[in-house]
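Record Regulatory protein NocR, 302 aa.
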Amino acid sequence: MRLRHIEVFQAIRQTGSISGAAQLLHVTQPAVSKILQHAEAQLGFPLFLRVRGKLQITPEALALEREVDKVSDSVEGVRRLAASLRRQPGMTLRMGATPALALSLFPPVISQWAERHPQSECELSSLHSRELVQQLLMREIDVALTLRHPEHPGLNVQPLAHGMLVVLAPRGYWSEDRQGVPLAVESLADAPLIGLSSSDPLAAQVGHYLKNLEPAPRISIRVQTYSLARAMVESGAGLALIDPFTAQDSARTLVRPLNPALPITLYALTRANESHPHTLDELLEHFAERAREQIARVTRGV
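=>
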């Protein structure tokens, strides 16, 4: 199948008719019919059958769907990358961060930075670590904040702050005077724990940290974001090992650092071998400063 064949195939799937596909592609109905016929002639089987006046996809076409979608996604990626390459550098600073970091660091730091640089523009997005790496490489964002160190030759990785994961518990689980007091890892044996999804960049590190506990923590719930883990703790569902950024400022939980510590690092990711606006260095320093403040406040139990 040629790209034009795939384009028409996708348009008919989306609209359900030749006329709808023609409108979507801004061409005539005869043109769509001709391209469809050409595609079916090359393939040697029909892609759609007309049943009671409506087009229905054939079993053979259904078998092609997954591979066709891959091609369509690749073409869309080329278009997005081309659009990013046409973009004039320095017009807008585009930043991404994982959900926990976006909620805790973007509001205070970006508002302060915008006051100092009123002529600058900033686009913010909240994505998971793998998506941030992809968007950086596709030039859809300029910098990303994450707790994951990606091993990729096309990226620069700059550590901004160092901290540790903490244990979050609902109020009443420990006495109030335990707030901020280090918790021995052995205390998590047989504890009800909110687990991390295997897709989380720190899941393997947490699993290795807890692997020698006997009996093992009881994990009946797994989540993909630390904010959801915190919400589950607040509801009384169990304990959670989460980052200090998510753990801050919760009136319904108690926070304790772990002993021995389970270290984490906040990283800023940018594309390698590429210049960036001079104001970005200043902005990253603000992020580093605010991150260190938040880490210190949580680990002290303040």
